[in-house]
């Protein structure tokens, strides 16, 4: 188990979050599926971590109503329906050792849903997302998360080709809103699943 998990887990708890630690994705997914009842609706944020877990298909097979714009033909309609879901699943761009979530988003649907509008939120975090502090978190986002997502989406931002942020004015720019969740705002129950694997970007 990553030795930093103990430190970040304690700090997350101090900041008002519920925390569980898992050895791998299989264990995390098994627990998450037990936590969700079939009558609960679920929304999923844009997340390679959630995509890699293949949990969307399993939730659909269980009979849950699942809203994920990545899987929908009408993305705007799906995003609208997702706002009222009971449960929200996502990951984070970075998690600092003092228990703060650092995210940069394009439209804001992901970052706002991480702390408001749902009964429960589950944030799945692989060990590659752990950062010592805010500066390291921002560096991670600008040199790893943003460029890799730009490449995945095949958009024409400089970071896609240079591998680092240049604070561009490209029409395709994804980085428009920076949100730091210092402590649980209290409007929803936020569960953090720390997974001892590298997950997502």
TrEMBL record:
It comes from the Bacteria. Residues 7-195 form the LUD domain. Pfam families: LUD_dom (PF02589). InterPro entries: LUD_dom. This is Lactate utilization protein. It comes from Tissierella simiarum. The lineage of its organism: Bacteria, Bacillati, Bacillota, Tissierellia, Tissierellales.
């Amino acid at each position: 188990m990553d030795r930093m998990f103990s430190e970040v887990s304690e700090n997350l708890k101090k900041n008002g979050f519920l925390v569980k630690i898992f050895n791998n994705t299989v264990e995390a997914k098994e627990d998450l599926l037990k936590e969700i009842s079939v009558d609960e609706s679920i929304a999923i944020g844009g997340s390679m971590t959630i995509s890699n877990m293949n949990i969307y298909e399993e939730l659909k097979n269980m009979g849950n109503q699942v809203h994920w714009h990545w899987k929908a033909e009408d993305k705007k309609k799906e995003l609208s329906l997702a706002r009222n879901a009971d449960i929200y699943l996502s990951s984070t761009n970075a998690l600092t050792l003092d228990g703060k979530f650092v995210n940069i988003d394009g439209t804001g649907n992901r970052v706002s849903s991480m702390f408001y509008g749902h009964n429960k939120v589950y944030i799945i975090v692989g060990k590659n997302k752990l950062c010592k502090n805010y500066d390291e978190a921002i560096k991670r986002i600008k040199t790893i998360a943003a460029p890799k997502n730009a490449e995945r989406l095949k958009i024409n931002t400089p970071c896609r080709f240079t591998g680092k942020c240049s604070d561009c004015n490209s029409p395709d720019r994804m980085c428009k809103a920076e949100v730091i969740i210092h402590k649980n705002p209290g409007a929803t129950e936020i569960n953090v699943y720390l997974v001892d694997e590298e997950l997502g970007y």
